[in-house]
Fold these 4 entries.
Entry 1:
Amino acid sequence: MIDRPFRSRQYLVAPVKPEAFEPHHFSGVTEPNGIAVPDDPVRAAAAATRRILPLLRDALAAVRHSAAAQPPPQVARAITLIWYEDGALCTPYRSVPEDAREDLRALGFQYHPHQAAFLLPAAYGEDGHARRLRALVYQLAQKGIGITLRHLSPARARLPVAAPPSGTVAAHRR
């Protein structure tokens, strides 16, 4: 409750976010707005009881339900791996925390300086990728780092390639 600016004898009453919940618990929840009430305590209490409390009760129930359904994230940092249609996995070098870089190298990710990225080649196959990803998830979880896996859609993966000069063979890039 605060004084209403430019309106003497009125106050603004608004709910505040409970500290027990994380910001992601409020996603999709309609939060109640504040109301102006007169400086008469009886009328102010009646207005708040009638106009704010039912909305606040519903919003709090929805936030509690969201909190029960969505436990807080267990990791503070995450690496995003991009899965290309040819099977290769890639992550930008600058997005990888320093304490995770050696784990990537140890599990077969190769650093490509011209792309500024770590790449797990498609040559390892699906089984090789699965084993390496499982090990990587386990090792990084011990350090509080999570992994997000994105699939690059074919439309975004295809980039226009310049035609090679006549008489030369274009190198296949993997």
Note: The radius of gyration is 27 Å.
Entry 2:
Amino acid sequence: MRILLSNDDGYFAPGLAALAEALEGLGEVVVVAPEQNRSGASNSLTLDRPLLLKKAANGFYFVNGTPTDCVHLAVTGMLDRLPDIIVSGINLGANMGDDTIYSGTVAAATEGYLLGIPSIAVSMTSFEGNNFASAGQVARELVERFVRNPIMEPILLNVNVPDIPYSELKGTEVTRLGRRHKAEPVVKMQSPRNETVYWVGAAGAAADAGPGTDFNAVERGFVSITPLQIDLTHSAQLSHIDQWMR
């Protein structure tokens, strides 16, 4: 099988190297990742300049664009045949709840899903990155499961792995996305040139973290697996808005 890997932390990220190592031997592994860290890029495509595809000394390909650019370029122009599955990660930091809207890691997998390819986004739930091997093993087991028992429709899975040794993981839970409180205000500072600059504030704490959510699962030491979809239609409001417009 052919496995396409990408991420949003950049082609040099240790999580990407750990993912490639974990999936070694399952098939042909091709890596196409951003040239630099593009965390928070979401599902953005670069349309105002051409993209460059280069190959690093370790065999990874990198693109001067977004995670979405990387997967789109690989699938629609670079590869001579489609990958069987796409895995994005391993991200340093969780992508749970509302984070998935902004996540470049999820965006790379989403692009694969939109192109009709089963796709998985894998993230660690801390910024310390002490146990990439745990997330790598989880990713390998999911790919092996897909090989044994393929799902005959495009799937998009958002996977969050606690940053603990693999032997300490309690198992896996299929979850829904939780919700966060409103984000913290932007941080206002003065630059060395006496310009006012702003840093985006920290994400809010979990607001909806009850049983069945991704937040709840990882808090209890479980791997969270959330199937995602891309239909943004607010179906429950269709009739209400239709009446409002009359």
Note: Helices lie at 14-22, 67-78, 99-102, 104-114, 132-148, 214-219, 238-244.
Entry 3:
Amino acid sequence: MSEEATSTVVRVVRLLQCIAEVGGEISVKEFAAHLSLPPSTVHRLLKLLMSQGLIEQRATTQRYRVGRELFRISSLIARQVDFEEIARPILTALRDACQETCYFAMYLPTSRRFVGTVVARSPHPLGYHFEPLMQQKVAWGAVGRCMLAYLPEEEVRKAVAEAGESPAGNPPPSLKDMKAALEEIRERGYASAEGEIFPEAIGFARVVFDADGNVMGSLGITMPMIRYKASMHKQLANLVIGKAKELSKALGYREVAELPASNELRPRRRARA
């Protein structure tokens, strides 16, 4: 393939990524700004994609949107891809970076619980592992609370009312304390908790959204306190934020308003509920 053809392919891919990630309808001028390309080049690429049904133009507004053929192809691909195939490489990369157990926990809205579905285990002989498909209340642990922080207030009230003692024996949280903890999670963009699900363990987690912006679950790290040092806090938080964002993006989520950037993180006192 010639250099010119390669360049055209790359630009076409970028254009398709742009219309998928921006969503809705988009003009030639907006495409040009997003892609840093001349409007004439964008127009040429759009005509090429329109000829194959991948992009459609709304005649009344002269704006462009995803074409029915691209939608058909995307639907066929989505049916063939298993969630674990998407999550496993991301979890494995996270585990390799921190050398601790990493997991994806799925949110179960009907019961306000979560369940570990994909796990990458720590290479250390001493570690904490979620039992497959064992349900836990969403009010407890970093993994649950980072989901709860992005759920409606009524769900928060119900989760607190149902919390009871944590799996590690911590007393039930008050609604006031829970709201304060969830606000802090939203400000930081991640959750951390110590000794709530596993005694003498610390966890870090970040919410994962699906393509519609709903809470799908969370990506987390758990490790024994004996291996944890306060100097590791920022690194672990940054790792879990980055990989959770990567998983959300892989699931089709478009982040409209960015949560706090990783370089704004600062360790805070770990609250015990």
Note: The first helix runs from residue 3 to 22.
Entry 4:
Amino acid sequence: MFFTIPTVLTLTRIVAIPLIVGVFYAPLDQPTRNLVAAIMFMAFAATDWFDGYLARKLNQTSAFGAFLDPVADKFLVCASLLVLVHLQRTDVFVALIIIGREIAISALREWMAQIGASKSVAVHMIGKAKTMAQMVAIPFLLYDGVVFGVIDTGVWGQWLIWIAAVLTVWSMVYYMQKALPEIRTRL
């Protein structure tokens, strides 16, 4: 089946991109835009966990779903980073590091799959930590306000996005080191 529940949830992350971007062009005041965009990002990002859970629970895993899931994640993160750069809430350097790594590691994983060495670049804890830092930093930066009168999400978001950038480089080096022996045997 092409359109399973998990695949539809994954597709919602791609559909979310113009919606999140469009919020910042809506005739709303800035605090409302920020709140709506942050909530939308969190809701759509949550589908990443939920679609994987449902795919396993309902036995609806598919090659298409396995391909689409990381693509949807990368689209959502990259589009959100571009919005944040446009709003001047994050540094373009951070966005370039994160987006560049996503492209490089996606290409590396594709190449490793073609040569039958996918396991050498399987998801590692460093990559998961990077993703977690991004997924908290982005809605914090989208919201860009004070929560509960004490948590300045703009400041925390800046710290977390820089931590994500450091983890991004670290994870890229890790995956490249893991792939290097396989690459050397193929040259």
Note: The mean pLDDT is 89.
